[in-house]
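Morning!

As promised:
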Amino acid sequence: MSAAPDHTPTIAQASLSQRLAPYAPVLLVIGLMALGLMAIPSTSSWLTLTVSGLAMGMMIFIMASGLTLVFGLMDVINFGHGAFVSVGAFVGVSFLLLLENMTGAPSLALNLTAMFVAILGAMAATALMGWAFEKVIVKPVYGHHLKQILVTMGGLIVVEQLIIVLWGPEEIYITRPEALKGAVTFFGAAIEKYRLVAVGIGAVVFLAMRWVLRSTKIGLIVRAGVENGEMVQALGYRLRLVFVGVFLAGSALAGLGGVLWGLYQEVITAHMGNQSMILIFIVVIIGGLGSVEGCFIGALLVGLLQNYVAFLEPKLALISNIGLMVAILMWRPMGMIPVVKAK
Amino acid sequence: MSDPILALSGVKTNIAQYHILQGVDLSVPRGQVTMLLGRNGVGKTTTLRTIIGHWRAHQGTILFDGEDISRLPTPAIARLGIGFVPEDMGIFADLTVEENMILAAVSGPINSARLDWLFTVFPALKTFWKKDAGTLSGGQKQMLTIARAMIEERRLYLIDEPTKGLAPAIIATMARALRELKDQGASILLVEQNFSVARALGDSANVMDDGRMTWSGDMKELATNAELQERLMGLSLETHQ
Amino acid sequence: MLTKLLSGDMPRSPVLTVVLVAILIGLAFAPFLFPGVRSVDTAARICVFIVLVASYDLMLGYGGIVSFAHTMFFGLGAYGVALASTHMGRGFDALLVGAVSGALLAAALAFIIGLFSLRVRAIFFAMITLAVASAVAVLVSQLSGLTGGEDGLSYKIPRELGPAFKFADGEIFGVKMNGKLLKYYLVFGVSLVLFLLMLRIVHSPFGRVLLAIRENDFRAEAIGYRVVHYRVAATCISAAIAALAGSIYAIWLRYVGPDTSLSMEVMIDILLMVVIGGMGTMYGAVVGATIFILAQNYLQNLMGSAASAFEGWPILPDLLNADRWLLWLGVLFILSVYFFPTGIVGRLRGGK
């Protein structure tokens, strides 16, 4: 090699894989759908399963989003988050039972109004409860993970027991509003109407959350606070207030998730929140603690995988999600969209 | 000099079990650039962090325009009109340059005249306005963090080593920016290791050692007295940098 | 001699000494002091849970790691004995094979989970163990062909451990010299040995490094200790001992099921016992487990009568209902984490 090295500056042309890396999580969702399509013999069942997987994913996302944001913002891990799911479900269902004449009527408008009222009531109740929970349970143990885990777990136990005191120990069976019962047929696939509603609500919540985080000053403060809370305060913002606000909003969303989840399962128990924590944790871990986008994509992955596997080999459904978590942690140890902390 | 914008007296700050500040007295006159000098690890950064409230003073008073701010929370201190540029710059890497600036304008939308002025001081900001701050170079990040402090008129600027690790050309830009700020009559407390910058900008100087102020006086006097520098900082600033 | 047996960790409080000695005597002579099926059963349960809670404390109090998979490890030991006894037939070899393979499997699983999560952040461990343990619990109840599902498994244990086996004639203090008595002392003996072993571990150089890591993991890492290695090792030891506790519990009950060994309820019981007794003290496990189980067995009756006393009042009877005792324990739990993080033992020793 006698020739002088070529000095033309090469603007490092990122390889295809490098340029795709930021989109890898999204591609993963599409890849999983494609994999499902190959594994599942009939296209119509695949469509049914995909819609119900997306519905489930959306509901998990709604339940989990608050948890991941609260962690990102204040490094607080709330093991009692599931309590809001349970309380939301019970309050929401109580409203629906009160409004029986509205939910029983075969009118979509009346049904949706009843659901809207129930959701609003559930969210108000869980927001209020979140405020109290933050003040009583979480605030005294800031900056101490071990105590946070223990105390919030204790909070979950107490709330579960209080639900039993107020609503009794029996599980409550509910029927979906009249117009949301049954399925519509779409390209030969039967798709439950309720799941479409769940997908719709989930998409609206995700887009609204994205809009708030990207386009409002509060959202900027939250995103900046996740990265470097100290600097946000040095600019003059009261991060503590913002945090309480996020905790409240996260609790309210968990309550909304509880109502949707309860109607999806058509039965609610005091322990449903605790049970939902399994999927919530898997989702926030694989998404990257603190990342809302990661949480969303993680939730879709978990929802889809759970439904595909449940169809192919029912007993492995829950374990498959553990497998997913292990695989993703091997690929990216901090989750799909790791949150950089400037500390 | 009789009515300083900021006055610390007997400030002691402990971090964990370590006594970092052991009774700091410091006076920052209005409309001047006050230098805070000293070797690494003597408590300069801790002094700034104590003023803005990141660390709590265990003893002593910090008077800002006559009001004791040593017990106020950080956001309240900042809202009194103190702009803070931390040593690690505190850039929000996931946010765009624009979003960083929007956040820095605490009291409302960005004043466009002031922004235009900043664009003339730091042209790079305009170029990278829509880019993620994390993708900027070190010098550009430093410009952003200073611009962030300058986007609104503050009554006092606390600036921690703005030229640390920067290329000479960028140091010149930085010095020019600080000079413009000074010419507007701003009060600045500046920690700086680069002596030519310190000499060019400083009106008065304070030298720290071991958590205390060991010398306070005119910057010119310190700048011209190599023996004094040697004695206060263990090395001559002329040769250092 | 005694100092050596306790690895130099004396109770260091007169009241605590009295309490511990009373518990030891009570458990050592339980079949004679408290004859009756139910009270001996309670004593055996206390023995098992002392070991289980102490092994949890090894992780939580000494390692600073919160795990929600402790019942999974406990269950592995229990199901190990159950499956071995079912498939190998009754016999001591089956018990041994079951216990050893359960303990090894638990340690291996703890190793894998620890490697995955402790490497990144300690709180990952709490979240991942919660997810994994719940998934395993669901799996166990679904694989009914192997595990008996929700119904669990009943099996036979060696004849020598059953009431039909008489190893001596006559009675001592009215207690029959049968296999049931032997079985109790098997449980008691194994528990005592395991407990003393753990006491030894926490006072070994290994235990002191763990404590240093709990106090300040950055500093420990800076001094040159591989924090992750120590944490993973503590997790594995803790998991193996929990599995052994599960094995002796399975021997005692001659039954395993999700409710007795795998459920979240048992996990919460463990948490309550360790916190109320005192984290990071080992003796806290003894005090916590004893008080908790006695309360569980006897206090619930009291609550029941309190509830009926308030009959007709709004809400109150529901709050005092015997089934709601977890509510009050939860409140007690939160309060103790806030105000007595060192638990009863820490208090008796004069607090930290």
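The two ends of chain C are 28 Å apart (CA to CA).

Hope this helps with the figure draft.
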